[in-house]
Design brief:
Blueprint lengths: L1 H26 L4 H10 L3 H12 L4 H11 L2 H12 L6 H9 L3 H8 L6 H28 L2 H7 L1 H17 L1 H19 L8 H19 L5 H31 L1 E3 L5 E3 L9
Antiparallel strand pairs: 1-2
């Protein structure tokens, strides 16, 4: 039940965002029913957008597979870290299903748990996936009946979604901002420069991703020092608390008195059988 509760706000957000994916699906010339299957098998907003763009341009299967693999590569790291927290009684089948349901938001609400059970994780992923599928289908169905002018205006939703995804990490890290700027510049060059503008969309995404990520890893590597420092700080706090508790126990042993958490002093009898 706890897993279902944490999945509710994610499901609502996914439903709203996937409407844009459904509209884009319809504009690409595919059927609404197929949009539900597509979203059920690809629980990834960025991956679906990239795949849809390649499919709409009638790109090749290798181009499609490589692009979606690069876009979704972060899920490998998420799966590995979640596996370390997952309770040991989860079998291979459960772990495969867990890996299928990993998204950025579902990962975020589970990684902070001290002990992660398969049942909790499955509960947290159920409603978000259903919301994602339902929103995609609804967007595709509505896209068939709304006027073209409204369709064109609604198309901005997908771009707004990606802006909302990219801006927070950019605002939080200058290194991420630099890498994002490099990727954007490469994408513009590949789209308009003579000789390379004829490249299919998927290959432009692949090139921009590899070059920007390579430059970022080489010249702007992530420095985990602040994470280690934070961990050391937490360890120091824990050690301090333990020391305080040991000090209180020492007072009990020596003076026979205990200070409770509320600050009230409680006397511990040391009469040792002596009569009053």
């Amino acid at each position: 039940m706890a897993g279902l509760k944490v999945g509710v706000p994610i499901a609502l957000g996914y439903f709203a965002v996937s409407l844009a994916v459904g509209l884009y699906w319809m504009k690409s010339g595919f059927t609404p029913f197929a949009s539900g299957i597509f979203s059920a098998l690809n629980v990834s907003s960025t991956g679906e957008f990239a795949a849809l763009s390649i499919m709409a341009a009638r790109g090749g299967l290798f181009e499609l597979a490589l692009t979606t693999a690069l876009v979704n590569m972060r899920y490998i790291l998420m799966s590995a870290s979640l596996a370390q927290r997952l309770a040991g009684n989860a079998g291979t089948g459960a772990r495969l299903l867990l890996a299928f349901g990993i998204t950025d938001e579902i990962y975020a609400v589970n990684i902070g748990r001290t002990r992660l059970t398969a049942s909790h994780y499955f509960g947290s992923m159920l409603l978000p996936i259903l919301g994602w599928i339902a929103g995609t289908i609804l967007g595709a169905v509505v896209g068939e009946v709304i006027p073209p002018s409204v369709q064109a205006a609604a198309g901005i939703l997908l771009y707004a979604m990606f802006v909302a995804i990219v801006i927070p990490p950019i605002m939080g890290s200058s290194k991420v901002a630099i890498v994002a700027a490099i990727a954007a510049a490469i994408s513009v060059v590949l789209a308009y420069a003579p000789g390379v503008s004829a490249l299919a969309f998927g290959w432009r995404v692949i090139i921009a991703t590899l070059v920007a990520a390579g430059l970022g890893a080489t010249f702007f590597p992530h420095n985990p020092a602040h994470v280690h420092e934070s961990a050391r700080t937490n360890e120091s706090v824990d050690e301090s608390r333990i020391s305080k508790k040991q000090g209180v126990l020492g007072e009990i042993n020596e003076s026979g008195e205990l200070f409770s958490e509320s600050g009230e002093r409680e006397a511990i009898s040391q009469e040792d059988g002596r009569e009053q």
